[in-house]
Amino acid sequence: MSDLSTSADEHTELADLLRWFVEAGADEAIGDEPIDRLAAVPEPEPRVSNGGKPPLPGAKQPIRPQAPQAELADDKAAIDDARALAAAASNLDDLRNAMAGFAGCPLKATAKNLVFADGNPQAKIMLVGEAPGRDEDIQGLPFVGRSGQLLDRMLASIGLSRETVYISNVLPWRPPGNRTPTPAETAMCLPFILRHIELVGPKVLVCIGGVSAKELFGTKTGITRLRGQWKDFDPAAIGGPAGQTMPAIAMLHPAYLLRQPAQKRLAWRDLLSLKDKMAELGL
Ligand code: URA
């Protein structure tokens, strides 16, 4: 066992280091052993056999692929698996169980909880955010932290609440340290949220923030251009089921509004537009 005794100086240094990590945004440990990411990476083995001899001087080393082939194959298998599991779920309980049993997404290993949904599954309005943050991960519910509290106030301003809307996220597991999810992680969670939307069957879809809007609208356009525009959400266009289109709007993420309060006026416009759409549809 390692000697855990530290001198007063070491204590102060460790406390300073910890404070620095927290200020840099690293607010939790995700592994037991530290990884030295600056350590020299061993040269890859040459792909072309040279009869076991070392490469000839001046011979070209093979180019290292972006992601190992095995990883890409694993990602594809995970996406196929997610699609099959999602398609087989015939109700929300089935879907939650299928997601809880899905081992293909690495985010599951670092998350504390699966964050499935909150609100009223019979609601006509469904909101889809990006991914759980720290508070959501701890409580297992979407939008319960500071940005969730702002979201609740935004909804209340047009007469909505968690009794009248249903809320979920594109990703049900928190990315460590709230980092942006990788394309592979998003791709393997997408079949679940598409099936989730299909099973709830809302009349109006609201994408909260850029990640949700880009994924569900199948575009690379940023949120500042997407927000406030009514579109037809068409899951078939992004690999989901056919025959279930609905009006959808993207809004600025409340976490962004907490950092940029001046943008709340745009969010207010979008909320009023949602209210008008509900009136138009008789909701
Ligand atoms: N941000 C999100 O996009 N979703 C949550 O559930 C919480 C914060």
TrEMBL record:
GO terms for molecular function: 4 iron, 4 sulfur cluster binding; metal ion binding; uracil DNA N-glycosylase activity. Keywords: 4Fe-4S, DNA damage, DNA repair, Hydrolase, Iron, Iron-sulfur, Metal-binding. Residues 116-272 form the Uracil-DNA glycosylase-like domain. GO terms for biological process: DNA repair. SMART domains: UDG (SM00986), UreE_C (SM00987). NCBIfam families: UDG_fam4 (TIGR00758). This is Type-4 uracil-DNA glycosylase. It comes from Candidatus Phaeomarinibacter ectocarpi.
